[in-house]
Amino acid sequence: MDRTIDWDGEAVVTVDQTALPQAYRVLRLRDVDSLIDAISRLAIRGAPALGGAGALGVALLARDHDAQVVRLEAERLASARPTAVNLRWGVNRALSRLAEGPDAVLAEALAVLEADIKANHDASGRAAELVREVCERRPLRLLTHCNAGRLATVGWGSALGVVRHLAAAGEVGEVLADETRPLLQGARLTAYELAEMNVPYRICPDSAAATAMAQGLVDCVVVGADRIAANGDVANKIGTYAVALAAARHGVPFIVVAPESTVDEAIADGSAIPIEQRDPAEVTHYAGVPIAPPGAGAFNPAFDVTPADLVTAIVTEDRVWRPLP
Ligand code: MRU
Q: What is the ipTM of this complex?
């Protein structure tokens, strides 16, 4: 598949990211229940990809239901994951054409997909320039957290899009891919994409990221985002905040790359960003096998908020935003 998420004329098609890298399984989702299920179990994941999924979900609904039902079901879809603002944004984009009929809704959803690839390509190109500017050493050693690659977007990727641009110019020495507990998006998906790009990489336990920086192994941290508040606070995968703290301590630039659709101007600062809490079993079990005593609870927020003062720059397709002067 060229795109992580697409429309085949009848259904939403996507790759099941829970199965990667062991198996490449294509899903055809013909109704909104299957789409919500895929989003909830992270078969489709990553903020920009969720924007595309939200828009296509409304297109699915608009084919079969009247406007009232579409709006009700669209709300259920938009609430499937609360942190990434792109999901609701994509749903709203498609809903904006509802009065014009199902073909118009589908056309809008397809436009969302197309625009996402370009936005990520352009934002990451701009961010690659910034990385060149702020890092002296060559070849570059980068660290990323979670997966902000083509799989997390409709195509190209945001943070890994930066790697893609820099690697094409032969400028990447190594990427440290944080494993990203508990669901291992880094060890499974980022590693898969880096291998696909032929970029040298090593998987880094989340707990080793600070040590990697202390040992001078990282020139720059590059991550994506799920929602960016008006003041520049950044919600991203749990563990990002700890990486930002370590980067600040060691003078390593910390760059966030995201499409404008991830910026939520309606939210003044990170304290108002809804943070998804996930099933404790993701922490107390590993690959379905219990690893903790029976009955153990878990604190399992899916995201954290990195305060704006730890962010060197937020780069979108339109701007390089330095939250603090
Ligand atoms: O829970 P996930 O895997 O959907 O979390 C994804 C992230 O946190 C990504 O870093 C973010 O969505 C940016 S993707 C370009």
A: 0.99
